[in-house]
Amino acid sequence: MALAERFDPGAGDLGFVRSYDLESARRQLQVSLLLVLTLACAALALVATAGFGAAPRGDLSAAPQPAIARLAQS
What we know:
Layout: H1 2-5, H2 22-50, H3 67-73
């Protein structure tokens, strides 16, 4: 409530920067690219460990059946 009581409409948006210099823009681009690269590496590690896209192993005829199919057979 204290913020609402001291509200100043002429103060503007203090949390936003209206101008950027070249160095700040370059640093933000580098950080963004680093984050994208990190996410890509994490996704590749997930695919490598989880085995997505790998052919299923074993006999598929022994795959578990849904409960409704088991009840219908009995």
